[in-house]
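Morning. Coffee machine broken again, so started the prediction first thing and wrote up yesterday's gels while waiting. Chain of 364 residues, entered below exactly as on the submission form.
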Amino acid sequence: MKVKEVIALLEELSPLSYSEGFDNTGLLIGDVNATVSGILVTLDTLEKVVDEAIEKKCNLIVSFHPIIFSGLKKITGKTYVERVVQKAIKHDIAIFSNHTALDNSWNGVNAMICEKLRLKNRSVLIPQNETIKKLITFVPSKDAEKVRNALFAVGAGNIGNYENCSFNIEGKGSFKGNEASNPVIGKKGETHFEEETQIGITFAKHLQSNILKALFEAHPYEEVAYEITTLENQNQHLGMGMVGELEQALDERTFLKFLKETMKTDCVRHSAMLDKPIKKVAVLGGSGAFAIDAAKKAGADAFISADFKYHDFFRAENTILLADIGHYESEQYTKDLLHSFLKKKITNFAVLLSQINTNPISYL
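Came back before lunch.
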């Protein structure tokens, strides 16, 4: 199996096109055409993680966080990032990261937190914008079913819990081919009228190349008439953070104790208690202060995230319980998710879970 084939599998879980604009995801080091001998899955790629990959004969590291986040002007080994890059290149080890692509995935980082806290009735906290597109095409009516089914087969027409969704309008199309044309229906140089079906169908933006490939292969015309637009509709299964409900409401102290034990953190920093039960909970792995207002708007009783600053806690404004469990702690189960996903997909070589604790923060 090639590196690019492993990446294609990972994109089934979290397409890179949904990464945030500030992020640096994808293959950071290595050759997409290299043959994979083993995969090591980690939260962070540190120098000792690269050593672990060398020891375990893994030439691909799948790392949630990207080791190269901003541009490198020099690689002299003076920083931990430069040393990782040097060592990985020296030992022909590829490094791949899906970071915010996995943050935005319905089955990604935040889904893992929800699983651990046993949250039900989940929804996306901050849906990502402009992720749904619409295709309109015009097909001879006798070929409409064939074209629709080809589009359905590659993922078009999925809306929430429904699939094979489309809208169809019957009408009459006209066209006249010039001398260079080779019309399938009608004669060149003559205006032809054909009973056609206008097919309207939505799709997720990362599927566009597959959608167009299927359209061109299934459509009978020499020149395929189509248009694609980007919709403002929200994708209910794509975006940052999640909101869910506990099976039973808990008082605040019991909830915080449950949170501390479940997420295996040595410290929970929280805002003032409000003496009200906690039932609806918002979560966002990693640095989530930007989502405090969204959690309040969603009607959450508590918001769990990390990296809150001093003044962020004032933003609770006696309406929500804010709980900072630590950056590493909020994302610690992400590598288990990636490891489990790849183990199910790949059986012909080793997919290993790194045993290195990469948390840079210690508590006294």
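The longest strand covers residues 192-204. Going to sketch it on the whiteboard this afternoon.
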